[in-house]
Each structure stands twice: as structure tokens, then as C-alpha cells.
Specification:
This protein has 2 helices and 5 strands. It is α/β, with parallel strands linked by helices and about 80 residues long. The protein has one domain: Histidine-containing Protein, Chain: A. It has a 3-stranded mixed sheet with strand order 1-2-4, covered by helices on one side. It has a two-stranded parallel ribbon with strand order 3-5. The two termini are about 15 Å apart.
């Protein structure tokens, strides 16, 4: 997994996708994140409900309280946007 999402010029969405990918142990480019005001929406698939919960927790730990976790749980599949 690359840590290029942490470079100084990275958008907030890209940084959040990186944090989520790290929490889910998947490639951050497979997660789609949108930010409107302070509301974060997460899209893609997660291999488990635990992985989906870790994604939301990563966003909370980054300081966001309004989270729309739209990740679909598809057991046995890698995360995808």
C-alpha cells in the first residue's frame, strides 16, 4: 500500500480514502470518498461488516462526526469503489 495520499497537496478526500484503505487493509484507490461541508460519504465494497465499521471509525478518528457509510458488504471480495 502506498502512502502517497499523505503528501502535503493531497485533497481531504484523498487523505480520508488513504486512512480508510489503511483501516480496511486495502488499496486506498479502491475507496471512493466525497466530502460536502463536514459530511463524509464512503462508497465501494467491504469484505466484512467489521471492515465497514473500521472504515467509519477511521473517519471519526480524523475528526468527522457526520458519516454516510455506503460501503456494501460482500463477503470474500476485496474492497472496490
Amino acid at each position: 500500500m502506498s502512502s502517497t495520499y499523505f503528501h502535503e497537496g493531497a485533497s481531504v478526500e484523498r487523505r480520508l480514502a488513504g486512512l480508510i484503505g489503511q483501516a480496511m487493509d486495502t488499496d486506498f484507490e479502491l475507496i471512493s470518498v466525497s466530502l460536502v461541508g463536514r459530511r463524509v460519504s464512503i462508497h465501494g465494497t467491504a469484505p466484512s461488516y467489521a471492515s465497514k465499521a473500521r472504515a467509519a471509525e477511521a473517519v471519526r478518528m480524523a475528526g468527522f462526526a457526520e458519516i454516510e457509510n455506503c460501503l456494501r458488504v460482500v463477503p470474500g471480495t476485496p474492497a472496490t469503489p
